[in-house]
């Protein structure tokens, strides 16, 4: 395959030549934001939603993105075209840009925009069939008063610490609680549980990313006739749920069958979860911003 072409601040570089400065505050301090976006069937899935979330994150960290939303969308589409993307994964990064060795963003005159359009490695197909075994991390999700998990920031150490716990336990994902013990989300996925045919997901304010796949899952589940309630719950409720599933751009919708050694429901991906997985797949296949006219 030809080498990937990476967008950096308006120019395209071969993957091997695509480099940013070691003085970029994204590198020095994790100062910046990013989005992980999917393309299905030659369309960017939920393009506007990802762009909107990026600009909201920028607002929250007081970062001025040097492109309009329209220009950003065009850059995304063009990067996909240059890489012949039909189905793929797009990583959009906006860093604070080049500054000096001090913390202050005031020393960074211009934010930097990077777009990578590549393929994506999914969880093994078998895991979608059989469901996933996971653990709860001892690392708590960032307190929104310190660093709001709604900001998809370049500082993912909180999530990475939880992921290390998952790796050590030999499972692919970890559930994260807030400092009060309320279930928030996972390292890269939102979480849902189902009890007596009602679907529950934590409200965003407990400390979670306002996931775009989460919103789609809520919309589709409601269209299917299920009641979806945003409500706080604890591990007790999770262990005793009939079904559990995760949502995320990378994972899509995936069933969870075991948490901390407790079997969820009857130990296979639940009935409602499986229906939702199918409905999601169908919905995602013909939605989004067309890459090729
Ligand atoms: N919570 C967190 C902390 C995330 O990072 C989600 C929830 C799901 O949100 P979306 O909007 O994607 O439904 C995320 C998203 C990766 C990767 O490469 C991670 C995400 C998205 C895409 C790729 O690990 N996390």
Question: Short description, anyone?
Answer:
The protein is α+β, with helices and mostly antiparallel strands and 293 residues long. It has helices at residues 25-29, 47-60, 69-82, 125-130, 157-169, 212-223, 235-239, 271-285, and strands at 5-8, 11-14, 32-40, 43-44, 88-95, 112-118, 132-136, 174-177, 183-186, 190-195, 198-201, 227-230, 243-248, 252-259, 262-263, 289-290.
How does this structure look, described?
The structure is a single chain. The protein is an alpha+beta fold and 293 residues long. The chain folds into two domains: 5-118, D-amino Acid Aminotransferase, Chain A, domain 1 (2-Layer Sandwich); 125-284, D-amino Acid Aminotransferase, subunit A, domain 2 (D-amino Acid Aminotransferase, Chain A, domain 2). The protein has eight helices and 16 strands. The strands form two sheets. Strands 7, 8, 9, 10, 11, 12, 13, 14 and 15 form a nine-stranded mixed sheet that branches. A seven-stranded antiparallel sheet has the order 2-1-6-5-3-4-16. The protein is globular, with a radius of gyration of 19 Å. It starts with a strand and ends with a strand. It binds 3-[O-phosphonopyridoxyl]--amino-benzoic acid. Residues 36, 159, 185, 188-190, 209, 211-214, 247-250 line the site of 3-[O-phosphonopyridoxyl]--amino-benzoic acid.
